[in-house]
Amino acid sequence: MSFRLSDTFRPVILDDVRGARKMLAGVARTTAMEGSRHLSQLVGAPVHLKCENLQRTGSFKLRGAYVRISGLRPEERAAGVVAASAGNHAQGVALASSLLGVRSTVFMPMGAPLPKVAATREYGADVRLRGQVIEETLDAAQEYASRTGAVFIHPFDHRDIIAGQGTVGLEILEQCPEVRTIVVGIGGGGLAAGIGVAVRALRPDVRLIGVQAEGAAAYPPSLAAGRPVSVDGLATMADGIKVGRPGDLPFAIIADLFDDVRTVSEDALSSALLLCLERAKLVVEPAGAAPVAALLSEPHGIAGPVVAVLSGGNVDPLLMQRILRHGMAAAGRYLSLRLRLTDRPGVLAALLGSLSVLDANVLDVSHVRTDPRLGLSEVEVELQLETKGPEHCAEVASSLRAAGYTVTVVG
């Protein structure tokens, strides 16, 4: 908590956020606030979802990007802007630049999801694919800025970016004036810092909780050290908050204003995404689901009403498919079984009939007949089942054993 910025940095204050809001009038949407009955029951207090996944470009990033580019001098606008991003910041910069009539170049990693690349181009940016990891992409963007004079638009470490993102906080206080806790995901920290500035100035009693993915959590060690530190080996499905080092300015604000920063597992992230889809009917990317994951992981002792910020909804369909499978497995809704059967006609049909009675959906069936452990008249069958949850899994396995089957639960 001892980290201090240079005196040359002017702090971000409430007036900056209010000014950003005026600038964003007619540009950024005032996104919906939706109640969640399931989370409210879990937490024991009203829980509301702030739906920035429904913002233009699919995330909060347009807010900060528009404010930042709006503040450029005429000669800077003439030189154009450049950014590096795997997705959300890229789209925010592209649309903001188009709306302001500024030329934009966006560098994206070679492996960036094709829908995000296509969307960034459609918003008007000149997209260039460089690097296998975001650090290489960032280097390419900064080299371009140095060579051409284009203004580099940082995704989180700039006061105008933070002020723009802070408009989310003003909307929260207006839409849920009785709020007592706000939970928000943290990557570099721009969104959390902006919300912190707005909320602390107007409602200092509100508890602020930040959330990071366990596999990409730079804030806990940074807060312990009292300064931003880098972490290596980042590994998380939540690429929107996959940042190896906090921004200097966001870190100073979060260290000063936030009550807690928590981490969540990959299982919790996938379960949260599944919950948003099934219960709230909202498509949310893993980073956007991080606050919900935190509520699922530690639901008790949180003063309500609670607002969880769903920061974005830009998720690649192929990744969504994998995450949903992971989320269903984490929620105990998949069951893998091995059974030994007599290898004669009708036995498998009888087994499948038993599963139908138990209301378990068969996803896959495989046979093993050549294992030396099997008798001459035996076959081993492996089943992948979709169930209704952990209790149903136990019921299925127990009922099959009671019917005389030798059952091994896999995993």
From TrEMBL:
<keyword id="KW-0663">Pyridoxal phosphate</keyword>
<keyword id="KW-0456">Lyase</keyword>
<dbReference type="InterPro" id="IPR002912">
    <property type="entry name" value="ACT_dom"/>
</dbReference>
<dbReference type="GO" id="GO:0030170">
    <property type="term" value="F:pyridoxal phosphate binding"/>
</dbReference>
<dbReference type="InterPro" id="IPR036052">
    <property type="entry name" value="TrpB-like_PALP_sf"/>
</dbReference>
<dbReference type="GO" id="GO:0006565">
    <property type="term" value="P:L-serine catabolic process"/>
</dbReference>
<feature type="domain" description="ACT">
    <location>
        <begin position="336"/>
        <end position="411"/>
    </location>
</feature>
<comment type="subunit">
    <text>In the native structure, TdcB is in a dimeric form, whereas in the TdcB-AMP complex, it exists in a tetrameric form (dimer of dimers).</text>
</comment>
<dbReference type="GO" id="GO:0009097">
    <property type="term" value="P:isoleucine biosynthetic process"/>
</dbReference>
<dbReference type="Pfam" id="PF00291">
    <property type="entry name" value="PALP"/>
</dbReference>
<dbReference type="GO" id="GO:0006567">
    <property type="term" value="P:L-threonine catabolic process"/>
</dbReference>
<dbReference type="InterPro" id="IPR005789">
    <property type="entry name" value="Thr_deHydtase_catblc"/>
</dbReference>
<comment type="pathway">
    <text>Amino-acid degradation; L-threonine degradation via propanoate pathway; propanoate from L-threonine: step 1/4.</text>
</comment>
<protein>
    <recommendedName>
        <fullName>L-threonine dehydratase catabolic TdcB</fullName>
        <ecNumber>4.3.1.19</ecNumber>
    </recommendedName>
</protein>
<dbReference type="InterPro" id="IPR050147">
    <property type="entry name" value="Ser/Thr_Dehydratase"/>
</dbReference>
<dbReference type="GO" id="GO:0003941">
    <property type="term" value="F:L-serine ammonia-lyase activity"/>
</dbReference>
<dbReference type="InterPro" id="IPR001926">
    <property type="entry name" value="TrpB-like_PALP"/>
</dbReference>
<dbReference type="InterPro" id="IPR044561">
    <property type="entry name" value="ACT_ThrD-II-like"/>
</dbReference>
<keyword id="KW-0021">Allosteric enzyme</keyword>
<comment type="similarity">
    <text>Belongs to the serine/threonine dehydratase family.</text>
</comment>
<dbReference type="InterPro" id="IPR000634">
    <property type="entry name" value="Ser/Thr_deHydtase_PyrdxlP-BS"/>
</dbReference>
<dbReference type="GO" id="GO:0004794">
    <property type="term" value="F:threonine deaminase activity"/>
</dbReference>
